[in-house]
Amino acid sequence: MKTISTAESCTGGRIAAAITARSGASRYFEGGLVAYQNEVKERMLGVPREMIERYGVVSREVAEQMVKGACRLFHTHYALASTGYAEPWEGHEVEIWVAWGTEKEVHSTCLREDFGRVKNVEIATRCVMDEFEKYRDAIDD
How far, in Å, CA of 80 to CA of 32, rounded? Predict the structure, then answer.
């Protein structure tokens, strides 16, 4: 059976919660990491500091590296990740990157609409779950 893990920042564990809410999740879900601080992304997920400095912690590059890092950390086939500004903050608009895939093949998308912090996080969680399901279905065919 294929296994899955999560690496989350702005979703704060909600992706892991969505996975474990499904019956039978214990057969394939290995675990998740809430890496809210840059240092945790660097140390635990192997996100290079230079990548954060060059692209910003809220970026496609960091989200995709978080997927790769979670696959390595948890020894899973797949991982889902998030990083972003869930509400306007210090001059930044809402920007949430979600990513999914394997250590070798990662996909991502960015959400920028603002429906309020709680709703933005809900939408990001649902988005990455839906995109992962489509991805998994496509490669399993």
Answer: 9
* Strand, helix or coil for residue 100: strand
- The DSSP annotation for 21-75 comes to TSTTGGGTEEEEEE--SHHHHHHHH---HHHHHHH-SSSHHHHHHHHHHHHHHHT
Token readout for 65 is 């590296």
pTM exceeds 0.85, yes or no: yes
pLDDT digits (tens, 9 = 90+) for 83-125: 999 999 899 999 999 999 999 999 999 999 999 999 999 999 9
**How much helix, strand and coil, in percent to the nearest 5, is found in the chain?**
45, 25, 30
